[in-house]
Structure formats: structure tokens, C-alpha cells
Design brief:
about 120 residues, mainly alpha, 4 helices, flat
Length: about 120
């Protein structure tokens, strides 16, 4: 008599004889999950549709009343007139051992002494 049996689990044979015991519940789970997720995705798209909707004519009129006239040339000259002397170019110190232009190359492999 051997220490380890040839067939440790009886359920393994059952699945091989009747694959439907495993397959049918799996297919049912997939179908049920698709119906469950359908409700969730429908709710998601409904909420998204509430946030993004067409603006009615009344809302358009309200928006047009509160609108401020903007002239691109005027804005350009405003920005150009502001002094850009508020900032200063500061170089960030590099970590020790790192050369100025990136990572140092790997040292060449050492050759074994010839005999």
C-alpha cells in the first residue's frame, strides 16, 4: 500500500464524469452578473446625462446677459505690459556622484588575467 493515494480527491472524478456540474452554475453566474451590471451601467449613464444636457433658450439668454465683452488685442497688451521679472532661474542641485548630463555609463567588465 502506498503512502500517497493515486486519486486524492473524489470530486476530481465527478467533474470529469459530469462537467455540467461545474459548467451550468458558471454559465448561470455569468448571465446573472450581466443582468446585475446592466442596472449599474444604466444608472451611471442616466447620472451622466443629467450633468450634461442641452441648454434651453432661457438659460442661453441669462448667460448672454452676464457675459463680459473680451477683446483679444486688449488682453494681449495687458499681458505684454506685465513685467516677467517675478521669477528667477534656479538650478536644482544634482545628487552626488551623478554627472551633469545624466546617468554615468557602466564601467567596462574586468578582463581575467591571461595565463
Amino acid at each position: 500500500m502506498s503512502i500517497f493515494s493515486h486519486k486524492p480527491y473524489k470530486t476530481f472524478n465527478t467533474i470529469h464524469r459530469h462537467p455540467s456540474w461545474f459548467g451550468i452554475p458558471f454559465v448561470l453566474l455569468i448571465v446573472a452578473a450581466s443582468f446585475g451590471l446592466q442596472n449599474l451601467t444604466q444608472t451611471r449613464y442616466e447620472l451622466q446625462a443629467r450633468r450634461v444636457h442641452e441648454v434651453s433658450e432661457e438659460e442661453q439668454l441669462k448667460l448672454k446677459k452676464n457675459r463680459k465683452k473680451i477683446d483679444l488685442r486688449e488682453e494681449y497688451f495687458k499681458l505684454r505690459a506685465k513685467p516677467n521679472e517675478d521669477w528667477e532661474s534656479v538650478r536644482v542641485p544634482r545628487p552626488e556622484g551623478l554627472p551633469e548630463w545624466g546617468v554615468p555609463p557602466d564601467p567596462p567588465p574586468k578582463k581575467a588575467p591571461e595565463k
